[in-house]
Queue: 2 jobs
Job 1
Amino acid sequence: MPLQIAVIGAGPSGFYTAASLLRESEECRVDIIEALPTPYGLIRGGVAPDHQSTKGVSRVFAKTAQDRRVGYYGNVVVGRDITLDELRARYDAVVIAAGAPLDRPLGIPGSDAAGVYGSAAFVGWYNGHPDFRDLNPDLNTSAVAVIGNGNVAVDIARVLVKTPAEMADSDLAEHAAAAIHQAPIKDVYIIGRRGPVEAKFTNKELKEMGALKECVPVVDPAQLPTVIDGEMSDHERALREKNLATLRGFADRPAGNEHKRVHFVFCSKPVEVLGGGQVKGLRMVRMRVEAGRAFETGETFEIPCGMVVSAIGYCMPQLAGAPGDETSGVVANDDGRVSDGLYVVGWAKRGPSGVIGTNKKDGRTAARQILQDISESGRTGGQGLRSLLSKRKVVWVSFEHWLQIDAAEEAAAPPGAPRRKFSRIKDMLAVIGKPTAKLLNPAG
Ligand code: NAP
């Protein structure tokens, strides 16, 4: 009997795990269970819509999904349609690859005001994620503050200032394109509580900010150190030097005709969202950075803005049946092993860091552990899953169904764009002729 393995989540960490299992064992069966009808997780819902080459990896994942040993169950929410314990009863091993889909709370006074959004919600909105389809952010402002110095902050700033022509070959969701491109945004502030040396954006993403049609990066040269202090590897030093060189280039750049600006504001921490119930600005405190650590100086200033996006990292919800850290939601694990027959990979294992390829190693580790720990199968696998889902009238989406949705999105693409995304689950299900009625709280 082949081993029956369930992977929860069809993002990069889930697909890399499935691919490793198939490579390491001719005889295993892998079922991928995904909350959305659509596969690929952050490739579809997180990677910036104008970074199409990054999304190319989904073609590799599609090959994995079409292997005869793999089943895909989209539109099935673990914790709603089926519990983790029910899955564990049907599979020899269950791998949690559910990512970190929630925003880390900003947690400063005023951060619950209208006009403050987390990056998971905001990026999900412009990427057509159904959970955030109705976010309707109020973009009627000339200035936006993006908090955080990671790649997500840079992605958000870039998407807000690129012209419609610059986004024409992207898959920016239609509703978001309409809102962003008629917004009067002129100034975007990217705010880092530490300095340019500590900033986490990668150089490729930072450089893009200097190659925009109507937008110029603004950097105060006084914020750029001449040397990089502290102990670090040569590799790390080289990466930081590169970012500094790019930022110096921005600082030296003569003013052009661009009418939008992205301001890099370093060593500054937001301490309050101003404006009462509606954002009017941020109160900031200037920071002093010593040996990589930031300390408040006591000096304050304000940044007037009508919208705030907090891009300060992600966390995950607790999954009943999986022991998790209360704050981050990261599943308690020993290099991926959680308990008998239960494993974790990706951001749910390590926290929200690293690029897509970083998940490969997790997938390989989990596959090897499973094949080492479990040699005999006594579970029903997909057969048991299908029977429970049918009993509960859960409408699941197969990979063939997804390919139909995919083809419909591609067929509807505006000129030059790769696809026109469906952003509502009912529209996705309509393509494949599935009813939309679901039992939201199955009793069993
Ligand atoms: P990130 O790289 O960890 O950056 C988070 C930023 O938020 C850091 O600058 C951090 O500052 C700041 N921050 C955290 N808490 C804060 C607070 N309370 N107040 C102010 N600032 C705060 O996270 P991310 O940008 O969300 O990206 C997640 C991962 O996805 C990263 O590994 C990233 O490289 C990857 N990613 C890659 C790409 C790409 O390759 N193109 C695109 C998007 C995302 P400190 O450093 O001081 O903590």
Job 2
Amino acid sequence: MDKFHIKGGRPLEGRVQISGAKNSALPCMAAALLTPETVILHNIPYVRDIITQRRLLEDIGATVLMPELRTHKITASHIELFEAPYELVKTMRASVLALGPLLARFGKARVSLPGGCAIGTRPIDLHLAGFQHLGATVRLESGDVVARAPRGGRLRGAEIKFDKVTVTGTENLMMAATLAKGTTVLRGAACEPEIADLAELLNSMGARVRGAGTPTITIEGVEALGGAEHTIIPDRIETGTFIVAAAITRGDLEIKGCHPEHSGALIAKLREVGVEIVEVNQSTVHVSCCPNGLRSRDVVTEPYPNFPTDMQAQYMALMTQAEGRSVISETIFENRFMHASEMQRMGARIQIEGHNAIVEGISPLTGARVQASDLRASASLVLAGLAAQGETIIDRVYHIDRGYEKIEDKLKQVGARIERLRDSVTASLQMPRGVEGMAAEVA
Ligand code: UD1
């Protein structure tokens, strides 16, 4: 398994370019299953989850051409299988996004039921209840969810109220409803920018979706959808991660190709703690840090437009470097503090009490061997490593490869000392051994 080797303590300075949003690209790729015509998607990030989603589409019979690295031309004219198998769903939960489009277009779909993951149980009961409201029968068969449209093969429009905000649940039902007979109203829908981006694609395919980006989405079903061309929005979590990277290293970064308005809650919170963030224009932010040091501030993760759970781990890394005590409350996932114990190995003072992490700053961080447990946790450990004195080795960086495009290259371009230790290199390293020794072997 690849590792990162980081020599910390150097401010990041320069320009960094943000990639397309993984969490928007994944549902947009699934949406291509709604039509036999070609859907062309630009600004697809080059990350592991996208490769997994492409494999899923190809496995079930779609063709995916890549005339350029970040452009996908997807044609789902000959679908042979109507399922997402366990091997794919277990590596990437977003494979369940195939369910809505397959059910809507073909009247049947089978998707392996995702199990728990490192950050919690993460059920899909709300997706399934929604499909039932649209007239589908849903049953569990050998660990798979098997869904069928009512007689005649077409879902029926319905009013669906979500008990809890779910991002992929909203996306799955929005896609399913595009081809349903009649009108569907989704209430309590997620408002994330990725939902609005997906709706924009669906509408350019001929769907009639209104209100995406608000809690009430209305979808008038149509008979068929056609091809379209669409550019994926920039990744707001990658944007946020680089803003924190500038702040935690006391650096100065120009972050380009982003949509600052999608990071409103994060930017407001970081300004409160003392980070200087200037919106240069609609697609650039300039971050400089921090003439008067960093102050601790509490934060609560909540659905968009509030502070995102996907930035909680990175914010925790930052709070270890802020003056005073902060309480970080995680309300979306029940087990999303795995990074805290790894940061403690680097000298952070963090106490977990139920849904709250209490961080005491300023804690001088020192390099250590740590292990990534999930995608955003890995990003937070990279940030901690960049701020730490000495050398950090982060194990299991395949987690970060799921969602950050070439993060080590982007960081190196702005002055970070970070190297990927390839599997073949790390395999030859013997334990026990000091971190210094490992670095020498890699160099
Ligand atoms: C999406 C994002 C992920 C982000 C999360 C929350 C993608 C591919 N992933 O994940 O990066 O961290 O939103 O912003 O877009 N829940 C249920 N029943 C359901 C569905 C969800 O109880 O049927 C619960 C979940 O366990 C969780 C909460 O609702 O506690 C929110 O989950 P959800 O918004 O569905 O997360 P994802 O869409 O999986």
